Amino acid sequence: MEIITTLLLTIAVILFCSIYFKNKKRDDYPPGPFNLPFLGALYLIKQNQAHLGLHKLYKKYGKIFSMKFGDVDTIVISEPSIILEMFHNQGAKFYDRFITPSFEIVGGYRKNIGFTNGPHWKKIRGIVNASLTKSKTRQLEDLINFQFDKMHDSLELELKKTDIINMKTFFKKLTFNVIFNYCFGGFVPYEDESIPEDVKIFVLNSERLLSHLAAGKASDYIHCLKPFSSYQELHNIMDGIMSFIKPNVEYHIKTLDENKPRDFIDNLIIEIKNDPAKTIDVSCIQNICVDLLVGGTDTTATTLQWMILYLSNNPHYQEKLFQEIKSISPDGFPSLSDRGKFTFFNAVLKETFRRSPIVPLGLSHMVAEDAQVEQYFLPKGTQVLANFYSASLDESIWEEPLVFNPMRHFNSQSPVLVFSVGPRKCPGQNLSEDELFLIGTKIFKLFKFSRPSEELFDESPVMGVTLEAKFFNSKIELR
Ligand code: HEM
């Protein structure tokens, strides 16, 4: 009996010492909360509310703090100045993606843009950046306007039945169609009953995918759980998504005319074929499309929905916006070349991004080589999370941060970083901002949005696919 007790005690001491010494960091490692074995500091974070847990830790430990996500060493950066310093000024050291087992599956085992590193990422990112530069996305102006007209027709039909409408579904169809057309050259009808079954299944699976990723999977960070954990659901979701994308890509490969590229996919096939280094192959195309379709639909639609919510809660700003649109474009609608003149619209958009940072923690990065940032040492391999939520909503940076006040941007040069910065920043920023300008100025010129009752719309977000507004119906009147 005595021998067994001694043996157990010895094992416990060895285990404790190994965890203690493994976790012990240099004195110049950033401060942070107490980490439990295996769990790290995840006990401080509620599922689907990581942004709130990290905001509390930021208040306690400052703009650069450390914690363990399960057994993964992590650094959280929470103020615009430090995010700019690491992701932009020292971007080369911090642009690698930290890739979890779930990200591996979603990226088709390093075939996409979002969850790859190294030469593959550089090649794909170069092609995507080139096709989404400001001048290229401006060629999409006609497409966005055409899709807006389609959505408008469908909205007018709905308005004949009722003036109380949830706009989110209209915006989602519009933004999906823009990116779908950009990739594949096609688009889907706005009337629910006419939408093909495969598109419905694709959209459903995209939503399941983003909710799955937002909820997080314990075994991605607590490695000893991996043998007991199944990734089958994620595989099923990806199979569902691919069953829609794959035939579309195959059709493009079969019918390609190199002299007449029809869309982004055709251009991508040509680039891949002509790349002497053969960095990527055509099997990557479907994973790249998933990134663009999934990343480009909900994000922009959710932002439009937030804009309607804030301008319904603040009708005086909606009126000011209407006057601006009417005075600059008295007949018809603005075009992208007018954007600089719309100072109030631009302030409203910036304030919407600030007040509701819809991707509150971005996508995780990783330290590529040992680095020194301010007084801190950051070892290679550490996960880095940019806390855009705190950067947008902390009172040390923004006065009365919970008040929606576009006017603040006329006096402040503080950046709003929702798209991130540096080599890894969102490649869809130009497209998204173009869509938001064209759709936003049209919708607020044509319609007045208000609350169906005196009660204000709830401004607190829910973590869904993105940081979303709770469900609300708008009362819509023609201007
Ligand atoms: C309001 C709209 C949007 C917001 C707020 C947003 C935000 C973000 C953020 C924060 C990241 C992570 C950046 C980083 O790792 O530092 C990201 C990455 C990405 N976004 Fe967006 N995004 C938006 C729209 C779009 C659109 C329209 C597209 C598609 C055209 C898109 C495609 C992507 C892709 C492919 C990545 C991964 C990039 C990479 O890893 O190199 N996003 N986005």
UniProtKB/TrEMBL annotation:
Keywords: Heme, Iron, Membrane, Metal-binding, Monooxygenase, Oxidoreductase, Transmembrane, Transmembrane helix
GO cellular component: cytoplasm; membrane
GO molecular function: heme binding; iron ion binding; oxidoreductase activity, acting on paired donors, with incorporation or reduction of molecular oxygen, reduced flavin or flavoprotein as one donor, and incorporation of one atom of oxygen
One record GO biological process: xenobiotic metabolic process
Cofactor(s) required, per the database record: heme
UniProt subcellular location: Membrane
SUPFAM superfamilies per UniProt: Cytochrome P450
Topology relative to the membrane: Single-pass membrane protein
Main location: membrane
Residues that, per the record, bind heme: 426
Similarity comment text for this entry: Belongs to the cytochrome P450 family.
Protein name, UniProt field: Cytochrome P450 family protein
Lineage, uppermost ranks: Eukaryota, Amoebozoa, Evosea, Eumycetozoa, Dictyostelia
